[in-house]
């Protein structure tokens, strides 16, 4: 006896991205499917590229795909499952709807703080402001000491693979866990790495732009 389809819903976003939620009733309950249900939650781009997927496929149990990454998912209840799925879509679409950019530079403490007052005064005058986020270092030595080649690679891989655990990232990089943990903590402190709601690490930036002035 085959699984019986009992629910299917598709949702089309304004940019033609697709969300699909499908639920089947199984012929009987099993240790792997104690609720007697099988599901697939999917979100993908208009060209068919999958971005967020949750399912409980036989042999794997509850798990999810975020970008190119795959990891086990701890199922609590259906409400949390749906909330986590929608949160994943929201995080994925955040970059599609408005690219987040951070500018990295070098400058003295006084001049780099002027932007705050400029933004304040512009807002008071009722001017339209574009979002600007900056990360400044006191000198080039501090910048290069903080943003080492290995940390740039870490940021690139994490951005490509999507949210994951520090241990998962260390496996992707084929590096010692303690060293990756140290790098992640430092990059998190300066704002280049963030956390998802379930505390996985992620790079929230689409564009990281470094600007260095070699002459005054």
Produce a short descriptive summary.
The chain is α+β, with helices and mostly antiparallel strands and 216 residues long.
Describe what this molecule looks like in 3D.
This protein has 216 residues and is α+β, with helices and mostly antiparallel strands. It is built from six helices and eleven strands. A six-stranded antiparallel sheet has the order 1-2-3-4-5-6, covered by helices on one side. It has a three-stranded parallel sheet with strand order 8-7-11. It has a two-stranded antiparallel sheet with strand order 9-10. A hairpin with a 5-residue loop joins strand 3 and strand 4. Helix 5 (166-173) packs across helix 6 (177-189). It is elongated, with a radius of gyration of 22 Å. The relative contact order is 0.11.
């Amino acid at each position: 006896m085959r699984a019986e389809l009992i629910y299917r819903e598709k949702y089309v976003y304004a940019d033609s991205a697709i969300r699909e939620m499908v639920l089947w009733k199984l012929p009987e309950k099993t240790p792997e499917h104690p609720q007697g249900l099988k599901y697939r939650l999917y979100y993908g781009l208009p060209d068919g590229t999958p971005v967020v997927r949750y399912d409980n496929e036989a042999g794997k149990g509850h798990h999810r795909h975020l970008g190119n990454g795959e990891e086990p998912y701890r199922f609590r209840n259906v409400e949390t499952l749906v909330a986590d799925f929608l949160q994943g879509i929201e995080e994925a679409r955040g970059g599609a709807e408005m690219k987040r950019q951070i500018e990295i530079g070098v400058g003295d403490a006084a001049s780099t703080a002027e932007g705050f007052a400029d933004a304040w005064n512009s807002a008071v005058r009722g001017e339209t402001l574009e979002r600007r986020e900056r990360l400044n270092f006191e000198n080039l030595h501090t910048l290069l000491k903080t943003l080492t080649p290995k940390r740039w690679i870490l940021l690139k891989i994490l951005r490509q693979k999507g949210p994951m655990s520090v241990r998962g990232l260390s496996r992707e990089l084929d590096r010692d866990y303690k060293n990756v943990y140290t790098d992640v903590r430092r990059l998190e402190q300066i704002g280049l790495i963030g956390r998802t709601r379930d505390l996985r690490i992620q790079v929230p930036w689409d564009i990281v732009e470094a600007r260095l002035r070699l002459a005054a």
